[in-house]
Specification:
Elements: E1 14-15, E2 18-19, E3 23-27, E4 38-39, E5 61-64
Parallel strand pairs: 3-5
Antiparallel strand pairs: 1-2, 3-4
Length: 76
C-alpha cells in the first residue's frame, strides 16, 4: 500500500505531507458524500513540538465506517 497523503497541518500524525499513524478510521456511517466523512484518527497538536516524530509509513490500516462509500468493503 502506498503512503497516504495528508495535508492537515495541525494533526499530530501529519508528517511532511503524509500520515504517520499506523491505522486510520474514516467515520460517519451515514455519509453520502466524501465531505461528510471525517478522519476519526485526527489528534490536534497543542504546540509545534508535539508534532509526530514518526516517518510516513508504507502500510496503513484503514477502517471505514462510511456505509455508502464505493470503496467500503466490510469496513475496510
Amino acid at each position: 500500500m502506498p503512503k497516504l497523503n495528508c495535508f492537515v497541518e495541525l494533526c499530530k500524525y501529519q508528517k511532511e505531507g503524509f500520515c504517520s499513524a499506523r491505522s486510520i478510521d474514516v467515520a460517519n456511517f451515514t455519509a453520502l458524500t466524501s465531505d461528510e466523512t471525517t478522519c476519526a484518527t485526527y489528534v490536534p497538536i497543542q504546540v509545534s513540538s508535539e508534532k509526530s516524530t514518526h516517518h510516513a509509513i508504507e502500510e496503513i490500516s484503514i477502517n471505514c465506517d462510511a456505509t455508502y462509500c464505493l470503496h467500503n468493503n466490510n469496513q475496510l
